[in-house]
Amino acid sequence: MPVSANSFLTIPQHIAIIMDGNGRWAQKRHMPRTVGHAKGAAGVKALVESCAEKGIKYLTLFAFSTENWKRPADEVSTLMGLFVQYLEKEMGALAAAGVRLKVIGDVAGFPAELQTRIHAAEASTQNNQAITLTVAANYGGQWDVVQAVKNWQAANPGADVADLTQERLAQHLSTAGMPDPDLLIRTGGEQRISNFLLWQSAYAELYFTDALWPEFNEAELSKALHWFATRERRFGKVANTQVKETA
Fold it and tell me: Which candidate in 6, 22, 68, 160 is catalytic?
């Protein structure tokens, strides 16, 4: 059942998604894995629009990990091509709908054309406020933490490491300025976070679904949001029921 912004007392402010299962979706249909990636990419626009309608302000998608370079060359090439096509064909409509695009990861590792398109899309949407779509590309959570330490050191030359706190390090993560994810979704049936937003997901609710990414539509999103609504987020505190019982 579709979910509106008024259906819950609490709507996650930030959803992060590991988009898994494109290749398996295609193989189940006796098609090349690359077809699955194309199908998965085609559904992103509708998902972003659905999240914006529900009042979700931040959506982060794990598009390409630092480990994905180990995949077959034709599959990597297809993923790069899909990224370029997406920026070329979809960003105009998304920008008009108030979507801000941010890309996190080692963008310098991508072809020059893709880097140019990424920077142009980020610049043209930087003032949009309906929803921030963050695409994690050539990204790894461990890489992110190491980069944050290096960036902190560069910003504080000569500082003692004893001066480095969690709050100060967070200011140099690739997601600085954004709230941490409230809900992390992984499609495709696997139950691990695969080096995605390791620092930022410390208190995220983890939702795993067997739906393959090309099957993850608005109905599947609603299931995840209904599940999230049942969670009591304590952040290290005791449950509210325990507090009442001991009061």
Answer: 68
